[in-house]
Every structure is written in structure tokens, then in C-alpha cells.
Design brief:
homotetramer; alpha/beta; TIM Barrel; six-stranded parallel beta sheet; 8 helices; globular
């Protein structure tokens, strides 16, 4: 939907007070997307699109950098360096699953990456259990696990009626399940702050 | 060390009150090991050793079945069926990491398998973050994450002096870190019981 | 080097009579690259860059589409559809290795993809044993194997002095080894034409 | 079928003059199988069954060691060492595919392993394109490719009527296709001897 889609998102922000995170697909669109979005997302397929990484490094907005489905943790951090090197230190990493032989889940969500990133860098890392598993029943346990592993945030798909969603329905939570999960996540995070090693 | 090793384990049980879990490597040894151990472990390399699976299915002791490093969740459950089919329903599954392209961790610990097993079967599932990551620094976050994902237990390597361990030192906790983790795991488990979905 | 690099390539074509294949990295550069190159290459990292695929679909030049390191054969063929759908039927597929757990080779060159592509589509498929293995000693056997598997061509790195190459030296053939290989490949191809099933 | 099955195989050898290769599943059966078979096969699932490896190392018969589906080339050679260390130098390695994310083929047949083994060891290496691909249409191209890559032999499934096979039908050649392939393989091998680098 190009710019009109961005305007709709801006209206939604106005109406709800929510921040907007949206994906930018190529270097040529960075300026336009940065004019509307609060955070620019680099998708897993673009994790090594170095033109794009440099462009968001100069855009003045925070960047959410998703891990490529076949990217090692080291490659992911190298990709982040392209953004940091342009002077943009507001980089958030997002683990969203890697491709393995397992077929039950869409990807294999690698929660050990959370602890690895915490050890190897100072960057915040969030987790996307929806894309990472492809199954809504696994979103709750993996969201709780991600927080317990030390994740700084979650990216979760929600749909008012997952059964009728045009895309990603099977991995989306309905609003009631999402609200219940968020309440438990908040309490878990508070529990963990009281028990930090 | 063969039978003498089992006798040492039995003495350790006598002295400490701890239960003994030990690995059985082939069908011919099942009777001997079952005479000493409380739980017989099937290692990842033997997950599809069908002779051995049938033999432990007839041994009368609980069995801890580790997931093969290249086994799908479906194959793992099929392996468990070989034990169940012999009438031994005391099977505990243990997720211990799968082999992927990632090189930072020894294996990729697949915590989504915990929720998958809970959905697909009635069997208890535990998690081994020591073998699953190969790095002691990742043991604590992944142990906490495993419990938050719904795991029924943990298998953690401890060594009085990891730096001098003959094997698996880099993935072993020292007793102080282990004790601190166990205390937090217990409180996390209690927290989760109060917040079950 | 941007456009100057393309001019150097054009001069090399003038001097040698060789055709030029060069990579295009984003949709914005397609027109410029198409003005110089005989064949536009889409690199493995851009295999699912759909803007770029559509742009080369409209460029009027043949396209060499490399397989992504984590792309299934089905996904690779779907990527080719984006180019074909724009009316450009001159698409050449290039197998260059997939990412697996194996560490001896840089990638695992999947020669079964050659036969699979021949069965599933009408597109020509070539093989890159240099990137596919990362080791010059494996280039000859895998080049011969690729031709025997039915590949329509090879993409091989050559350097006058591999030990001093700025990049990709360990996987490059020197000119003497390359010439010897080419002679044998030609004879093997002739042999295979006489023995087609 | 235990020993009766071995007797049937011995009768088939008597009647046909063909050598017998058959799999041995555990150390306890090695003596019995060695009494009948010409070559003992260690299956992919037992590649790291060290009791069994040692036992066949002492059996006095050649051993065919299949690569594990998640075994690196280095681990495969280490497994062979267990047999060699017992004084049995007649070890044949067999590449039969590794597990990857690809779904079109049952496994990914890693022909680069042939050249790697030739470089790293003195052991003969053969290739199994039937299990390696799981699809009979890919058996011919991958058999030819294996020979071109330098393989010392092939392991190919044949069934008089693949459509009615109790197991492995989809990957089995019928006798006519097998005979045609063998003729071409023989001529290809002769061609390659005339063109060895």
C-alpha cells in the first residue's frame, strides 16, 4: 500500500497512542518510512542487505533488526555493526527462529541467542515467538520462556479473529489470550527483577 | 568402569539419599544397570536403537529418553512408543539440543519442543541446558527459560571445580552457582503454578 | 566501484570477447547494470528480494538466479516465478551450496537440486563448486560431478595467483588447473551426450 | 528374521555368486553375522555406537560404515578410527545423505564428502543415491555424479516391481533402469580413468 499504508499507521498511532514499528524493504524507501514510523524494522530476509543497513544507520530512528533464518549469532551482530557504524546506536535485535530440519514448528526459536547476545554485546534483544514457532499454542510458553531467558521484549501477532486472518492466522493469538499472556509476562518480569543473579 | 562404576553409584545413593540416573548403552547391559539404577537413561545417540528401546521397555524401571541431535519431535515420540509398547509407561523425555548451523552454542536447545510434547503427548519432559548449550554462562538463562516453557525438570551438570573437569567443564556450573539457580528455579516454579493459563 | 566498475567490465568484454555476468544488488541499480552486463546475477542473499526480482524481470537481459543458502528448491523456483511473471523467460538457476551443520566445506553443495530442477521445471541450471565448497581441491571433483548430474554450466572462480587473492583465494583455481578442468569437462559433456538415458 | 535371514542370504550367494553385505545392529550379533556375510554394514544410526564399532573391528571381515545423518565428515572419520584401531583396515565409507532443511529430497546427498575423504584419508568411499535422495528419478543423475566425483562404488536399491515394494519403493530402480545405469556407470568410470587429473 506504500505511503497510504504508512498514513493509516500514523492515524492508528494518533487514535491509540501506540508506537509504530514497520518494515522497510529497500534503501530507497528509508526516508519515507522514517517520516512516519517510530521504529524501522529490517526483516530476516534483509539482514545482510548492506545498502539497507547503512541507510537505516543514517535515518535517525531506532532500528529493529531481525535475525536471518540461516544467520549465525556472529553474522547477526556483524549486520548490526553496519547500522552502528553509521552512528545509529538505537538497534534492537529480534530473535525470530532459525531454519532447521524440524518440521513441527515453522522455525526453531533459538532462545539461547538471548543469553549469547547479552554476553557478547550491549544491545537489547527481543523475541518473536509467533514467527518463531508458527503455532499459536506455542506462543504463550515460548513468550514466558523468552522473558525468563532475559529477553527485553516480545513481538507477538494478535488478530481479532485468527481463524479469518488473511495471513499468519495459525500463529496469531486472539485478544483474550494476548491480554492474559501480557498480564502474566508483566508479573514474570517483576518476579525476575527480584531474582536477578 | 562397568559394574564397579554402578556399585560406586549405589554407595553414593546410600550416603546421600539421591536417586541414580545412569546411561545404558546396549540391550545386553539393561538387566545389570537396572539392578543398580533408579532411572535408566537412553543417550541421544541411541534414541533410535530399537533393540535397546525394547529392552528398557521390559526392565521395570523408569526410562529417561534423550532426543537425538537430528531427531524431529515426531521421531522422538515414535522412539518413546517402543518403550511404551513393552508396557513401561514411566518414560521421561529430555530435550538436549539439536544440531544446526549455529556455532556459538554446541547445539541449539529447542525449548519449543517442551510445549509441543505437552500438546502431543502425556509424557513428562525435562531439559538439559548444559549439553544443549555447551556453555555454563547460558545454563542459568536457559534453565529458567525451560521452566517457564513448562518443563517438568532439569538436567544440569555440576562440578566442584569446572576448570579442572576431565570432561564437560566448560558447560558445568560450580556448586555455588548451581545452588543459587536451584533456589530461583524453585521460586519460579511456584510463581508459575500460581499463574497457569 | 559503481559505474566505473561496469565500464572496466565492458572494456574487458571488448578486449576478450567474453560475456559479462555481474551482480545487481538492488532494484534501483538494475537499469544501470543492464546497460553494461550481458547477464544480471541475483546473489544468494537477494533470492527473496522481491522488488529486485520484479525489476530484473523487466530489464530485458538474462538473469542468473543463485539459490539462497537456506532456500528450499521449491522456494527457489518460486523466486524464479517473480522474474518469469514479468515476461522475462531467460532465467538461469545456479546451485551454490546450502547451509548445514557440516564444517569442513563452507556450504553443502546440493547436486540433487540439479536433477530436481530438471524434473520440476524447464529452466537451465548451473553449479558453482567454488562457493559451494570453499576449497579449491574440491572444485574439480564437484565440477565433474555437477556435469555428470546434468548441470548446464559451471561457475568457477579463477585467480592468476590464488595465494594472493584479496578474496576467495582458498576456493579459486589457478589458470593451469582451470584449463585442465575445462578440457575434461568438455570431454565429459560429449561423453554424456552419447550416453543420455 | 535373525539367523534364518542370514541363511537365506547365504543361499542367494551360493545361487548367484554375489557377495553379501548385511547390516549388524549390535555388538552381540557381530560373530553370528560375520559367519555368514562377506561385508558387515554399520547403519547410519549406529555410526557412533562405539561398542559395535570395536566389535566389528575384531570380526575379521570388511566393514561398510555409513555416515550418520547428522555426522560431520570429521566425526565419520573418527568413527572409522574405532574400527581401524582394532586392527581391521578393511573399512569402506558410505555417504548416504545428511539431514538438512530441504524437503524435496529425503536427505541431502553430500557428494563433496567424496573428495574430502579422498583428501583426508586413504579409505575407499562409496555413495548411496537411493537413501540419499529418496526418489528413484534422482538415483541415476546422482549415481553418475558420485562416480564423476571420484566415488569407488555405489549402493543402489533395486526392486523387481518398485510400486509394490514393502519398503523403499519410491527410491528403488526397476531392473531395466538399473541395468542401463550400470552400463553407463562402467563406461563413465573407464572415461574417468583416462582423464584422471
Amino acid at each position: 500500500m506504500e505511503e497510504q499504508g504508512l498514513q493509516y499507521l500514523a492515524e492508528a498511532r494518533e487514535a491509540t497512542g501506540l508506537k509504530i514499528v514497520t518494515e522497510v524493504m529497500d534503501a530507497a524507501s528509508v526516508e519515507l518510512v522514517a517520516a512516519y514510523a517510530d521504529i524501522l524494522q529490517i526483516g530476516a530476509r534483509n539482514m545482510q542487505n548492506f545498502h539497507l543497513l547503512k541507510a537505516v544507520g543514517r535515518c535517525g530512528k531506532p532500528v529493529l533488526l531481525k535475525r536471518g533464518i540461516a544467520a549465525t549469532i556472529a553474522e547477526w551482530l556483524h549486520a548490526a555493526e553496519y547500522i552502528l557504524n553509521e552512528g545509529n546506536y538505537n538497534v534492537i535485535l529480534c530473535e525470530r527462529g532459525i531454519r532447521t530440519f524440524e518440521e513441527y514448528t515453522r522455525n526453531t526459536l533459538d532462545l539461547s541467542a538471548v543469553g549469547a547476545i547479552k554476553h557478547l554485546s550491549h544491545l537489547p534483544v527481543i523475541v518473536d515467538p509467533s514467527h518463531g514457532t508458527g503455532k499459536w499454542r506455542l506462543v504463550r510458553p515460548m513468550a514466558m520462556a523468552a522473558v525468563a531467558a532475559g529477553a527485553d521484549g516480545l513481538l507477538i501477532e494478535v488478530h481479532p479473529n485468527p481463524a479469518e486472518a488473511l495471513s499468519d492466522g495459525p500463529q496469531s493469538l486472539n485478544p483474550a489470550n494476548f491480554a492474559a499472556l501480557m498480564e502474566d509476562v508483566r508479573e514474570l518480569a517483576a518476579f525476575l527483577r527480584r531474582h536477578s543473579a
